[in-house]
Amino acid sequence: MIDIRELRADPDRVRTSQQARGEDPGLVDQVLSADERHRAALAQFETSRAEQKAFGKTVAQAQGEEKQALLAQVKDLAARVKQLEAEAGAAAEERDAAMRRIGNIVVEGVPVGGEDDYVVLEEVGVPRDFAAEGFEPKDHLELGELLGAIDTVRGAKVSGARFYYLLGVGAQLEFALMGLAQAIAQDEGFVPVVAPTLVRPETMAGAGFLDAHADEVYRLEADDLYLTGTSEVALAGLHADEIVDLSAGPLRYAATSTCYRREAGSYGKDTRGIFRVHQFTKTEMFVYCRPEDAPEEHENLLRIERRVLDALELPYRVIDVAAGDLGGPAARKFDCEAWIPTQGKYRELTSTSNCTTFQARRLNTRERTESGTRIVATLNGTALTSTRPIIALLENHQQQDGSVYVPEALRPFLGGVDELRPVVPPGA
RNA sequence: GGAGGCGUCGCCUAGUCUGGUCUAUGGCGCCCGCCUGCUAAGCGGGUUUGGGGUUUAGAGCCCCAUCGAGGGUUCAAAUCCCUCCGCCUCCGCCA
């Protein structure tokens, strides 16, 4: 949620932001009107409530008939107080409903427009020229099957479409990637975390995942809990309703967890292999910092993501995501997209968002300052996931015989092997 | 799964049975001041959070809410009732 005081002070700024997102700027006026009604109703309620309280004191002191007379007199007032309170509450609810539909105010400089209006900030590395090398690259599923690493057929048998097994070097690759991601995150000063993957509705809503993308989320009806699609949710909830101490610098966490996504509305998209799946593993970085430090922390998260991709020796590019593709809580987002040879394009591998105070306001995470408390800023970024980096590694580092080169940085996490070789998959 | 107990403004705590004088008691810690070669002690004051109003703004002042959360009863709720959350104890079950 954005700061209503900011909206009151400069509604045009919020309208502009909404327009950049391709969303309704009229919500700003709905908020302003409901806010005005709320404040008027609140003043009335508070006045009569004060009157009622004062009256209560005389009632307490009165005795006998005098008391009965006072009681009869104050009944009307009590009813009015109740009604005024309800009116104020209704206006507040209306205001909040409109507020919740307004996305974070986008950072100045973010490209205007939708999904395709991103700006490429940099391209790193050069995609291999397989034609020049004299062979046709295999796709990740074919390679994965040759290596005995990926089994989507049995995944579908057991759990349905978009589920898979990672076996042998496939499973080892996932562990190695998470190991590398955690090692780098810890080297960068992040506290390693194992976090809940089932959270309460308040946490899910607070992190901003029940607004536009509510149908992306798995819900356990019987327990009223949600399966998280990223540990960002649990890390955002970690300090909910707390006053955190940022005097020694930002709080930085890195959690590795399984992520669950319904992928509703993506029917027919990326159906082959393990590019778009319902379940994967991810190491997520999360930062709590002072609002004025957020841009710098965002750059830092991007630098770390690049450090990870550099370590995997992948060709990739960095894009500045356009306003319309940000998602509600983000004020700015950078995606790192790796080159996928058999698709002939760059695809998102990691992503980092600056949510400024949007998430923390709803989750009520504050810091103490000389003049009171204030809402902190939160940022998040992918260190690594399991599935897409496996795809990128297999495809980019494949050799003509189906073996796969292992980047040096990953070898310590794979028992020192420098090459993955085709095997007969177990049970095939 | 069953039974019971508990949750008070940083920490501890009084108040809840018997609703009003609670503007929530006291202690510890912390902050400011006084006293004082220095320190300690002592003395005085302050110390939840959010919102609204007043104000150019801040300070100050006034008001409302806040006793785990939400609802209810009542002229009036920390106090009575209901639901939920959390913690603890015992029993059962599983390891």
Automatic annotation (TrEMBL):
Subcellular localization(s) per the UniProt record: Cytoplasm
Gene Ontology MF terms: ATP binding; serine-tRNA ligase activity
Site (Important for serine binding): 382
Coiled coil stretches, renumbered: 67-101
The protein's annotated pathway: Aminoacyl-tRNA biosynthesis; selenocysteinyl-tRNA(Sec) biosynthesis; L-seryl-tRNA(Sec) from L-serine and tRNA(Sec): step 1/1
Entry's EC annotation: 6.1.1.11
Gene Ontology BP term (one): seryl-tRNA aminoacylation
Domain of life of the source: Bacteria
CDD domains, sorted: SerRS_core (cd00770)
Domain named Aminoacyl-transfer RNA synthetases class-II family profile: residues: 139-407
List of residues binding ATP: 261-263, 277-280, 348-351
Reaction(s) catalysed (UniProt annotation): tRNA(Sec) + L-serine + ATP = L-seryl-tRNA(Sec) + AMP + diphosphate + H(+); tRNA(Ser) + L-serine + ATP = L-seryl-tRNA(Ser) + AMP + diphosphate + H(+)
Residues involved in L-serine binding: 230-232, 261, 284, 380, 382
Alphabetized InterPro entries for the sequence: aa-tRNA-synt_IIb, aa-tRNA-synth_II, aa-tRNA-synth_II/BPL/LPL, Ser-tRNA-ligase_type_1, Ser-tRNA-synth_1_N, SerRS_1_N_sf, SerRS_core, tRNA-bd_arm
Family that this chain belongs to: Belongs to the class-II aminoacyl-tRNA synthetase family. Type-1 seryl-tRNA synthetase subfamily.
Protein role: Catalyzes the attachment of serine to tRNA(Ser). Is also able to aminoacylate tRNA(Sec) with serine, to form the misacylated tRNA L-seryl-tRNA(Sec), which will be further converted into selenocysteinyl-tRNA(Sec).
Description of its domains: Consists of two distinct domains, a catalytic core and a N-terminal extension that is involved in tRNA binding.
Name of the protein this chain belongs to: Serine--tRNA ligase
Organism: Ornithinimicrobium tianjinense
Originating gene: serS
